[in-house]
Q: What sequence folds into this?
């Protein structure tokens, strides 16, 4: 009887570690699976997001809805129509614009009135740039930010240039539940450093601003179609403004202001229509 018990104990001692090793190998194989990331949407698809932004000096968060409609598609371009409106009021279209991107997230054209640098604008979903090759967990890719142009405001024309870099890390896989349902997702971290220089001509005066910023966030991306399911970002900016031209009338020979700001921006997919 003692010999039988000893034999059983040895079997348990040998089998359980073997099962644990097999389980670990299986999990490692799952986590090492390659994924080719790109925006694989279809004409007629519609994505609706709930956006929230909270600044350090605000008691209440700002909320709004953002709708993205795929109006046309080819092998190399996705045409999108984007409408931003007040949360809970579908009749309010505060900022409609169009956007054309490649399947890997590079902007080709847009009607947006503002600096075109989606890497520094986490308030606009589906702005990640994907590598044109499969990636595995832990892999890092870098995107360079370099853009310039002009855009109109009610006070005048703004010239801008933005430079920096965006570091992406594929860090996890899991199922994510949001208002639009459950999605098998890939986790992508984004870390951005940028400098935005703007020249604002208002009447006879010119204002010069330089904004340095750091943006850090996590994105959960649908692993098959590449669209954003959920994200959260921390945004830190420091703007230096040269408003000497404006203040000359008050007798100043030089006048500069420095304005730091911190905010948190989150996004969740709340509704989706697939064609």
A:
């Amino acid at each position: 009887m003692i010999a039988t018990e000893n034999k059983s104990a040895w079997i348990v001692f040998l089998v359980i570690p073997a099962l644990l090793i097999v389980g670990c190998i299986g999990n490692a194989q799952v986590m090492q699976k390659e994924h080719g990331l790109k925006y694989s949407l279809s004409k007629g698809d519609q994505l609706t997001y709930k956006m929230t932004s909270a600044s350090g000096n605000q008691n209440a968060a700002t909320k709004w809805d953002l709708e993205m409609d795929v109006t046309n598609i080819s092998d190399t371009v996705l045409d999108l129509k984007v409408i931003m409106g007040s949360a809970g009021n579908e009749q309010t279209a505060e900022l409609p614009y169009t956007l054309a991107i490649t399947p890997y997230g590079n902007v080709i054209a847009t009607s947006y009135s503002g600096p075109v640098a989606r890497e520094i604008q986490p308030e606009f979903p589906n702005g990640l740039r994907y590598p044109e090759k499969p990636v595995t967990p832990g892999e890092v890719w870098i995107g360079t930010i370099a853009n310039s142009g002009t855009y109109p405001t009610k006070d005048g024309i703004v010239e801008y240039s933005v430079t920096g870099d965006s570091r992406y890390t594929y860090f996890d896989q899991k199922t994510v539940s949001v208002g639009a349902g459950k999605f098998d997702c890939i986790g992508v971290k984004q870390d951005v450093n940028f400098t935005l220089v703007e020249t604002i001509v208002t009447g006879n005066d010119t204002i010069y601003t330089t904004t340095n910023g750091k943006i850090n966030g996590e994105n959960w991306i649908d692993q098959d179609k590449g669209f954003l399911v959920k994200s959260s970002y921390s945004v830190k900016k420091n703007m230096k403004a040269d408003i000497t031209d404006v203040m000359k009338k008050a007798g100043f020979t030089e006048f500069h202001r420095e304005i730091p700001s911190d905010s948190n921006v989150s996004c969740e997919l709340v509704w989706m229509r697939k064609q």
